Each structure stands twice: as C-alpha cells, then as structure tokens.
Amino acid sequence: DGGITQSPKYLFRKEGQNVTLSCEQNLNHDAMYWYRQDPGQGLRLIYYSQIVNDFQKGDIAEGYSVSREKKESFPLTVTSAQKNPTAFYLCASSKDSGGRGGRETQYFGPGTRLLVL
Amino acid sequence: SQQGEEDPQALSIQEGENATMNCSYKTSINNLQWYRQNSGRGLVHLILIRSNEREKHSGRLRVTLDTSKKSSSLLITASRAADTASYFCATVLSSGSARQLTFGSGTQLTVLP
Hints:
The complex is a heterodimer.
Chain A: E1 4-7, E2 10-13, E3 19-25, E4 31-37, E5 43-49, E6 56-57, E7 64-66, E8 76-78, E9 87-94, E10 107-108, E11 112-116
Parallel strand pairs in A: 2-11
Antiparallel strand pairs in A: 1-3, 3-8, 4-5, 4-9, 5-6, 7-8, 9-10, 9-11
Chain B: E1 4-7, E2 10-14, E3 19-25, E4 29-37, E5 43-50, E6 55-58, E7 61-66, E8 71-76, E9 85-93, E10 102-103, E11 107-112
Parallel strand pairs in B: 2-11
Antiparallel strand pairs in B: 1-3, 3-8, 4-5, 4-9, 6-7, 7-8, 9-10, 9-11
C-alpha cells in the first residue's frame, strides 16, 4: 500500500514546547515538501528537500526546522519560536529530483492538525 | 500576494449542473495544476496543463489555459454531490526553483443533491 503517511493526525503543543510532525513516503520519491494551511486559505511552503541531506527554505520557514536523513522521511519540527503555530500541516512528495526540467505533480499526505493548549 | 487566485471563492450548484472555476496568476509559468481537497484531508492532484497547451481533458474535467491573459479555468461537467470539495490551482514558475508550487486560496464547491 504505497503513499505518504503523516502522524499524528492531531497534535497539541504547550507554550514554549517544540513538537515534531512525522512524514514518511514509500513512493521512492526524491523531493519532499512541507506546507502550512490556515482556515480558508491556500497552502504556503515551509521547507522542501530535493535530495537526502539537503533542504531549502520556503516562503515561511521562520520558527520551523527540518531534516532529511533518509529518502523516505522528512520530519518537521515546530519550534517555540513559531508564535502562531495553529494550522493544518501537509507533507507532499514528488518523483523528480534535480535540475530545472522536472515539474512533476505532488502527492500529499492526509495532514496533521496542530493546536496550541 | 499569492501567485494564483481563484474565482469565485465559493460556488453552490445543483447536482447535474456544470461548475466552472477560474484561476489568475501574475508571472510566467511552466505549468499550472489543479488540486482537490476534501474537508480536513490532503490534496489530490487532478490535472496538469503545460504553458504550451491550451486545453486538456480528464474524464468530467476540462481545463483551459490562456497564457496571454494569465488565466486558467476548470470545468466540472455533470457535477455530483461527491464533487463537493475545495479546488486549488497551483503554478510552477518558468524561472526559479523547479520544485515550488504556488497555491491560490481555493474555490469551495458545494454540489447540492
């Protein structure tokens, strides 16, 4: 059963706490992405990674960190520096890697809803 | 502001009718994609149209692209209650990162049975 999984489905964060959202894919995709979605809004790119051990900031990277130690995994940490973390977080992957020629579609996980206590 | 903007923000139609959603963007694109999102779920890719294409079909979906007007439309024919969802356009720019999709704010479609 191939695809992208995200866990947990719901996550509660206390003030000053760092929390980590998991994203795993078994599609053998090279590129992975993290997006944030606020109510009634589109998606905004937080970070993306084209290959293992490399990642790039997106439009709203402040207060977030990522790692890409394995091709299958791209965890996102929401740090205490992110003052407004309540949102729906979506992870995605795409087949293409490297170069300007690839404009592949992205495959999304089911999302994690982060709420602040 | 975002690269893609959908219009209308919300659309309510009866089952069997056609639904048309529009997307406008600002800078030159390599391709434009449409995605669907059911409430509280991830996005599902529907269709991709490249900058050198004008029209594309997939089942009940028809997408057009007018690069001179920097706009695209998504037509869903013979709509069903199961088509109720939010629909987003997303653009890949012709310059810059090959990876980045820039999403609009979406159209919420409600199909009434």
